[in-house]
Amino acid sequence: MNRAPLKRSRILHMALTGTSDPSAEAEASGEKPFLLRALQIALVVSLYWVTSISMVFLNKYLLDSPSLRLDTPIFVTFYQCLVTTLLCKGLSALATCCPGAVDFPSLRLDLRVARSVLPLSVVFIGMITFNNLCLKYVGVAFYNVGRSLTTVFNVLLSYLLLKQTTSFYALLTCGIIIGGFWLGVDQEGAEGTLSWLGTVFGVLASLCVSLNAIYTKKVLPAVDGSIWRLTFYNNANACILFLPLLLLLGELQALRDFAQLGSAHFWGMMTLGGLFGFAIGYVTGLQIKFTSPLTHNVSGTAKACAQTVLAVLYYEETKSFLWWTSNMMVLGGSSAYTWVRGREMKKTPEEPSPKEGEKSAMGV
After folding, report:
1. Is residue 271 within 8 Å of 83, Cβ to Cβ?
2. For the region Disordered, what residue ranges are annotated (predicted)?
3. 215 has pLDDT over 90
């Protein structure tokens, strides 16, 4: 018996709350030998780690490489959105032409739906732009700490917008994250590597990630609960909204004067960055499907730790004990929050998830 794929709306809810799907886990545990399941999980987690870490290092190269010297962060983000839009459309056409070869929803640009998604698209643009601007101005090693306040904003916005209260223990873990963030900022300053601009962009990115999660749940019904349709409309809207920004900020002129504009290597790296941006959504859902949202969060925390260590080694940096302590506080606080919320959700009966018709094997 094949395991039924998780509904996308269900996955989103579980990923946001840190809860797992016991029934799905029970089915998975009884249908395959342990070694086969362990191998599958190891491969999926490895794929997530490689994709996520590679994307960060590649974006750092595109945004702030001394050899590239390209100062067009908005254009880099625009191009990645364009690649994602074209990939979604291409896979949709392939699924239509070759049913069964690829399971992907049909995509047709509906202006009414595009308008419904537009408020979320504005938040989405802020999220990906501030993420890239943060990465441009801070080192990869500090990138995780610079964007570590997402959990704190989740708690704050849940109270302000949704009137949801948070337990004392969850607030305590948020306090640990805030402490780690401030200690990290202090240590970056002490080492002379602090970029206040990059740090501000990191805080704004964290805020937009939280807003994106909240508005995604509100907008999903407009795209029939399909994460892939939402991805398509978000990126299509972003491509249009980025155009006036490229003109206003003078990035088209900077691009015209760019020495490597005709380089196949440059456009290959740009396209690869777009492919990674598309792939991270797929492998994230794949990891949730083969493990659980809680395990996915733990894997993400461990990946962030490995990414920090790799960055320190690759860029040959020397960090103080307190700098490493700030990272451990952020990672430990995030893991503790996930664990606390997971325990709380198990004690609270969950509301039935919205009905969704789409089941995609690319699906996550």
Report:
1. yes
2. 345-364
3. no
